[in-house]
Structure formats: structure tokens, C-alpha cells
Amino acid sequence: MANLRGNPKQPTSYVLVAASSSFLVNVLHFFLSAKARKASGLKYPIPYATEEQAAKDPKAYAFNCTQRAHGNFVENQTPFLGALLISGLHYPTAAAALGAAWVAARAAYAVGYAKRGPQGRVAGFLVSSLSDLVLKGMALWTSVQFAMAAYT
């Protein structure tokens, strides 16, 4: 059986740090959404303010922004984790660096969207999207290399 502790001096350890730090971004989203929900006065189980509420009340609009940011994060976290872990099998240092960039950018996306609305998410979006795209390319290439090695 493999040693589950691993070698903390190996670059693959940093891939795991990047992966697990993404969970903290989800916690950040929870706090941002909870704060905005309380400020807006919208009660559970309402997932979003209506269009009319958001148009009349800046706090309801801000709540919608935090909810949408959180939804977007949840939509993107699983594919990110898959790409990170697969690419980390062959390119651990690059994958860890790109993973860290993605996590930091997603935190900036969350805070920017919560504070400034859709325009506040642009920088975080650009960095996270670029990091994610490169990770997915590396994951695909890693998979192809593994498949080719299986037939040689």
C-alpha cells in the first residue's frame, strides 16, 4: 500500500494545497452571500431578489450579485479540480502555480462582484479563465501522454 502521507518536498504536494485552498473560496462566497442576504432583508429560501426588487433596492441587487458569483464558482470548481489534479500528475509545479492563480483570481472575482457588481468581476474572471484554460490543456495533454505510454 502506498504511503498516504506522501513526500511534502515533492511538487505534487503543492497541487493538493491549491486544490484544497479552493474550498476556502467557497467559504468566502458563503460569508459574502450571508452578509448580502442579511443587508437585503431577503429571507430563506429565496435564492434571488426579483428583477423588480433588484431594480428598486441596491441591497437586493448586491445580494443577486453575490449569489450569482457563488453560483458561477460552484459551476467552475469541479472542472477546475479535475484539470488541476490530472495536469498535476505530469506537470505538478506548473499545475500548482496555475491552481494558486485560479484560486486567488476566484477570490478576487467574488469580492469584486460583491462590492462593484458585474464590472467588479472582470480582472478575476480574466485571470481565472486563462489559468483554467491552460490547466485544461495540460490535463488533456497529460491524458494523451498516459494513453500513448499505455500502448508502447
From TrEMBL:
Q: Which residues cross the membrane?
A: 12-32
In the UniProt record, the signal sequence range is none
Membrane topology per the entry is: Multi-pass membrane protein
A Pfam family assignment:
MAPEG
Annotated keywords: Membrane, Transmembrane, Transmembrane helix
- Kindly report the protein's main subcellular placement as a broad class: membrane
The record ties this protein, via InterPro entries, to: MAPEG (IPR050997), MAPEG-like_dom_sf (IPR023352), Membr-assoc_MAPEG (IPR001129)
Its subcellular locations are: Membrane
Stored PANTHER family: GLUTATHIONE S-TRANSFERASE 3, MITOCHONDRIAL (PTHR10250:SF26), MICROSOMAL GLUTATHIONE S-TRANSFERASE (PTHR10250)
* Name the UniProt record assigns to this protein: Membrane-associated proteins in eicosanoid and glutathione metabolism
Q: Which organism is it from?
A: Apiospora rasikravindrae
